[in-house]
Write a structure and sequence with these properties.
The complex is a heterodimer of chains A (about 260) and B (about 210).
Chain A (H helix, E strand, L loop, with lengths): L4 E9 L2 E6 L2 E5 L3 H10 L4 E6 L4 H15 L6 E4 L5 H9 L4 E4 L1 H5 L2 H10 L4 E8 L12 E4 L4 E6 H11 L3 E6 L11 H10 L4 E4 L5 H9 L5 E4 L10 H10 L9
Chain B lengths: L1 E5 L7 H9 L3 E5 L3 H5 L4 E3 L9 H5 L2 H10 L4 E4 L1 H4 L4 E2 L14 E4 L9 E6 L1 E2 L14 E6 L1 E2 L6 E7 L1 E9 L2 E4 L7 H13 L8
Parallel strand pairs in B: 1-2, 1-3, 3-4, 4-13, 5-6
Antiparallel strand pairs in B: 6-10, 7-9, 8-11, 11-12, 12-13
The chains are: A alpha/beta (about 260), B alpha/beta (about 210).
Chain lengths: ~260, ~210
Amino acid sequence: MLTKRIIACLDVHDGRVVKGVRFVDLVDAGDPATQAARHAHEGADEIVLLDITATHEGRKTLLDTVRRTARELFVPFCVGGGIRSARDAEQVFEAGADKVSINSAALADPLLIDAIGRSFGAQAVVVAIDARRNPEASDPVRDAQVFVSGGRKPAGRSVVEWAREAEQRGAGEILLTSMDSDGMRNGFDCELTAAVSEAVGIPVIASGGAGTVAHFADVFGRGKADAALAASIFHFGVSSARSLKQELAQAGVPVRLPC
Amino acid sequence: MRVTVIDYKAGNLTSVLKALRHLGAEPVVTDGDLELVESAERIVLPGVGHFNATDRLDSTGLTSAIRDAIARGVPFLGICVGMQWLYAGSSEAPGQPGLAHFSEQCEHFPASHQKVPHVGWNSLEVRNGSRLLAGVEPGEFVYFTHSYKGPVTADTAAITQYIVPFAAAVERDNVMGVQFHPEKSGATGLKILSNFLSWPAKGASC
């Protein structure tokens, strides 16, 4: 049976794992290679590394970080942040990533999705969408809006429509982050995740808001997510993917165990 | 131990090379140097992406070199599209023939309420006698990402269920294929690659 994936997410800044609330107040959370290996060892089904460094030097550091992290990692490894061209993607793949996650660059030039998909296959292209409910709309969930620049600026696109376009252009997966929930540990936005998951035929990874095991069970059930991302829940030894999956299994969620 | 890895420009080889090196093998990559196939001790054909990309194997002469190597008894492992290529063809690229080592066709998953591609960790039901999957316990998980699949036949070494039962692994004598990605399937995947690497190389002295 196909299992629901628990994906460990490492936000990386200048070569270090960091964690903040709503992308601010960053706290150091360790070395990316060490953290990735630990999460894989502790049962994570996949590792996502999101680089939040904007500088040119930071980009070079990222490739080193990816190379070091990928070296002893034998689970799927996705890298995002600052990938603006097919050439950027190629460098990240050569450094050892299996997938790239693209966000604002895809919004600025949707053909980037087609280009990377053609060269490396749809399975290698994850389109990340930062979403906020639209409180002014009659249906705040169906009319949720895409945001860019770390959730600060509206992109002028509907989340559901953008997810559909990304799929048509050859994205293999959607990584959906609820900016309303991110870092709050109050649960995923299940209504929004379900709206996107029902609108596309490709897997949807839910992100933002994980705080308890029940939140994961909820997003796999009500939220119709195929995978869920967790960052803060794993850092500082709060929990491990294995213990999370053991509890999910008891709640009837199909997960990869033993792992 | 030398492993000839075929590069036909279908996606990224880094992960496969890394896993082979981790297991102590020395991968050498060829995108057309037939001598590396003619002298190969064992061959891995990876591949992600579109079945169309396999036309490069024909145009470079790799197809016939691989066919000869297989006939000499060289152990061969196809991964993902590399496994599908062992069949007669795929409905993904109707004009493009495969190696036809296995006579069947690969087909798209049938329409259902479930998502395609099939992405994620799914379990293996290993059939008795598979040497490639020796030591893989019932229900062990491996990582898949694909929309086309091979049918279950007498040569199927492991079955996985998604929408329908399909061939997760195929094996006949020295020719093996896996639909999943052993290089991305944790300890289970490394065990499977290790089984392939311990397959006696043709003509090896022992």
